[in-house]
Amino acid sequence: MNENALLYEYSILRYVPSIERGEFINVGLMMMCKRRRWLRTAITVSRERIMVFDPGADIATIERQLSMFSTTSPALANLPVEERFRWFSAVKSASIQTSRPHPGLIPCDDGTVPAKEILDAEFDRLYSILIL
Asked: Percentage of the chain with pLDDT > 70?
């Protein structure tokens, strides 16, 4: 493995309208790189998609529940990024859940591009595939 390569983990945030049915709608992405102490989360609540599965859904409540995944949450701000990521991505039996964490590796050739830019670009790529 290239020592400049960036190892990251990501987890998909999901809204589960009915725990019993097990169906879900992807509503966000959380990604972390421990070595660079980098953590990013983005959420997109699609009212139209949610209403297909759950016509009575309270979108404001869903958005409020998802706000706990903010990477700037004061309750978790002092924890290292890997501990925050683990806390957020722990298995839950609730209407807001996360996928199992998935690893990824970004090769970095010469180190001229800052790690944050590389991680942000990978986050944006995954977000466009998994959430939008």
From this structure: 94
Contact by Cβ (8 Å): 45, 29: no
Which amino acid is it at 8? Y
Encoding tokens for residue 55? Answer: 């016509």
| Residue 60 dihedral angles phi and psi, to the nearest 5° | -60, -40
Cα torsion 76, 9, 107, 117 to 10°: value is -40
74-108 per-position pLDDT tens digit: 777 788 989 888 888 887 778 899 999 999 999 88
Which region among 5-19, 39-53, 84-98 has the lowest average model confidence (pLDDT)?
84-98
* Distance spanning both ends of the chain, measured CA to CA: 32
